[in-house]
Amino acid sequence: MAQYHLFKICPHCLQAFKPKRKNQIYCSKKCRDLAYKKRKYKKDKKDYYYLICPYCNKEFVTSNSKQKYCSVSCRNKYRLQKFKEAHPGKMSGYVKRYYERNPEKKKEVYCNEKRKLQKLQHFIEENNLAREISLQNNTYKTPYSKEEDEFLLRNWDKLIKKEIALKLNRTIGSVQSRYKKLKKKN
Predict the structure, then answer these.
(1) Cα–Cα distance between 50 and 41 in angstroms, integer?
(2) Distance (Å, whole) CA 179 – CA 184
(3) pTM of the predicted structure, to 2 decimals
(4) CB of 4 closer than 8 Å to CB of 22
(5) Of 10, 26, 46, which residue sits at a domain end?
(6) Which among 33, 74, 32 is positioned nearest to 53, based on CA atoms?
(7) Is the model's pLDDT at 139 over the cut of 60?
(8) Which end of the chain is more exposed for a tag (fewer CB within 10 A), N or C?
């Protein structure tokens, strides 16, 4: 078995590292990718700049010397952070005025929240209904029989989970967990 050098020096970041393979040159994938970009951009004979984003502290490559941030989202987050630091407590007024000028945006936000609540309530009602049925039929936490297992496996792709749960007088969660267990056994 060949022995590797104990430590190598990464040509990109100039830090010592212990190689995992004998032909490993760079200390990490990040250094390898950045070194590749440097070689690639040198061939293009353009001026490229290696900058650090003031918001997320990531190194990025750009051809624009005036660019400060790695992305638009980082720029917006940084500006918002600086504004909050300079003007504490003023954001609510700006948001309120924005929605006064754009009332359709507020309706969209309200409608999305309302839809999410309706879906959540519907999900809770379905599970409560199935649980009540199982409690009425005294099938709560009783073991599955072979016939129920066969029915479950046979009809899993044919019927929706709610129908299977109602026919077996079980909860939807119980039916799904039983199906997973049966699949693991097979």
Answers:
(1) 11
(2) 9
(3) 0.29
(4) yes
(5) 46
(6) 74
(7) no
(8) N
